Structures are given as structure tokens and as C-alpha cells.
Amino acid sequence: MGKYKLTAKHRAQLKPWADKWIKNALSTKAMDAEERKLCVDAVMRLYDAGGRPRPKHIVFVPSPFVLRFASGYAAAIWYLTRNSNAACRNATHAATDAATDDATYAATYAATDDATRAATHAATYAATRAATDAATHAATDAATRAATYAATDAATDAATYDATHAATYDATRAATNDAIGATWFFMNGGPADLTSKLRLGKFGSQCAQKIWNAYQGGNFWSAWDSYLSFFRHVAKLPLDYSKYDAWETLALHSSVRIVHSDFCMISDRPERLIVDDQSRPHCEDGPFCRWRDGSALYAVHGVRVPMWIIEHPERITVSAINAEQNLEVRRVMIDKYGQEKFIVDSGAQVIHTDDFGSLLRKNLNGDEALVMVKVVNSTPEADGTFKDYFLRVHPELRPLPPGEWSEERKREFVMQQQPQVLTARNAVASTFGLRGEDYDPDLET
User: Fold this and answer.
1) Is the same domain home to 120 and 221?
2) Are residues 157 and 20 part of one domain?
3) Same-domain check for residues 166 and 57
4) pTM over 0.85
5) Which residues contact 319 (CB under 8 A, 6 or more apart)?
6) Which of 2, 57, 346, 347 is the most exposed place for a label (fewest CB within 10 A)?
7) pLDDT tens digit string along 72-114?
């Protein structure tokens, strides 16, 4: 069979099809009873397709946070039920670490995930790529991925890994919620308390960390399905989709899941998922992603931040900003605090003054300096006074692009400019996209 070539009719369906799956990836619809029924059937068929025994239990949970801990603890309990080695329960010393690691691997090994994925998604993907050209892959998979990956990845893989790593790597770690930067709840206390009450010890914590080896993305992996389903439902390639149907059903009707030999655990979709105009997770005044159990994640233009920065910005201080080691988070904190207020309150150095204003510089550990020029508004206020303004400039006073530019185009423009001597005049000129020698304030408009 020769490779499929797009017809004009099918080409016209590419964008609507990608849009459909983008909407699916970012869906905030709560799972209902009918969807759970469809998912139970699909899970059974998924395991059948992979040649694995059907799971003893299919459990629906409200969020990936619950999914991560509940499935990890369940994997530990199932393993310990079959293995009476008490050392696994109390492996707290170096001498037992190796044994614990081996047991954790055995408890969470993703053989079921590998088998089901290979038989359904991977096999269909390989057959489709072999039968088609690259154009359709770009228009479906790549288009959907570009619009959804940043938000969905932050909401599951990276977010839940960070959560469990912070909460379980050291079971005695204090202030877990602050370390995670999210709101989430346990009826029996925090994860360390729950691990202790279940008598799982370090082993349970490690299982919660490593259970993500058995993770499948559900609707958050819609990019793959936009590509595969296009050829199934639109182009109608002559392939056997009977096994893939289970995978596609789960992608349409549920979110992320853990596929274990003894159970399958499925998370609901979030109730809120917000992105900016570049499809990055973003919300200035609340969580960008929140599930119905209260679990929440925070981000500003793609930068994951602790909850308190968004919910309690009044707690941001100069000392807190200076102490923050993550450069991206620190920049968000400065923006929330106010660049003008920060450069004043932090005791920035005045490096030049002339008739155009004062140039101030605040060095930031590990990052480019914050440089601003203070100017006096030439138009008086209603009471006759003249207001000071602070304008941020490039640390080398490279001219900045005038008007509204995308961040990428702005970076390209700035890198093509030459540095200037650090004077207030040159700084003011740079805000108009000019060099100091070309700047004439009398010609300002």
C-alpha cells in the first residue's frame, strides 16, 4: 500500500480536527456516571489488548495528586500482601536501602503500562506513520501539542512529580504544603502522617514517587490522538483500530491514569485550566489549574510558583525576593512586588544622573541586573507637582523595540542593537528604540 496523500477534502478538516482535540485536552468537564461506565469497559479492553489479566479494581479519584499517592500506596500494599518481608516496611537504614529499592521496583514496575501502550497506542501510531506523510502529523499532533503541552504537562507530570518528591522523599520533611506550592488535602493528615498510619514507611513513600512509571495521559495526551484519530475517522485508513479504540475512548472520557497489574486508577479532569496567549499555564490572581478536591497549581506565564505568591502577594518582601534561588520565580516575585518599588526599597545604586533623569542599578544574584531610569513627567499633576516615573531598560542600554512586540521578536531586536554608555540620557533614548546621540526630546510625540 502506497503512502496516503491528503485530499483537498481531508486537508480542510485538519484544523477543525486539531481544534477538537485541543478542546479535549483543556476540558474542565467533570466525569459523569456514563463516562465512568465507558471507561470501565475501555480499561478492560485495554488490558485485553495488551495480553494482561484484567485489573481487580478500577478506581476513580478526583485529581492527579490523589492519584499519585493513592496508587503508590496501593502498589505498596499489594506488594506487601504478597511478600511478608518485614524489612520492606521499616527500611530506614542504609543497610536496607538496596532491598527496599528492589521491592519498590517490583511493586511499581510498569509492565502492564508497557504492554497496553504497545498494543494500542504505539502499534497504531507506528502503522499510521508508515502509511502517511509528514504533513498530516504536523497539522494534527504538532498543532495540538503546541496548544496544550505546556499546560497539561505542568498540570500532571511535572506538577505531581514535584509534589511527591517534595512530600515523600523525606517523610519527616516539615511544611510540605509550602514546599509543594499547592493546596491539597488528606483526611488523615499529610502524606508523611498517612504513610506512617498505613505502616508503609520509606517503602510507601518510594512507591508514591515511582508509581508514575505506570502513568498514561488520558485527555492530556490528546496530541497523539488528534493524529491517530484523524486517519481513523476522517481519512479512514484501512488499519485495524479495534485495540486502539480502548485507548481513544479513555482519551475522550477521562484524564490521567495509573495502569497497574492489580488495579487501574483514573483521575477526573480539572475544574479550571487557564493558559495565556502563548498556551502557557497562567493566572495572575488564582490557580491556573484546580481540581474539584481543592488541589491546585499556580503559574505565571508558564513559570510554576508557590501558592502564597499568588494568593498572598502582600507577603512578598525584598528579603524574600533576594533569598529566592529560582531565577524565574524571583522575576515573578519582583513583578508582583512592583519593579519600581523594588528598585527603591532594595537600595539600588544610582550610577548616573543628568538632566534627563537618574539611572539606577540593582544587581541580582545569578541573573541580569535590574536597571531603571527615573524620570520626571514633563506634565504637572492637578496640584502642580511633577510625578516621578521609573522605566526599565536593558542592562547595557541596548535600544528597545517601540510599540507592542512579542517576547521572541523583542529579544531578536535587542540582540541586534549595540550597548551604550550607562547614562540617563542614553537610557531614556533606549526606551524610544534610539541611541542617545539620535535622541531629541523636543521631537517626542
Assistant:
1) yes
2) yes
3) yes
4) no
5) none
6) 2
7) 888 888 888 888 654 444 544 444 456 667 777 777 777 888 8
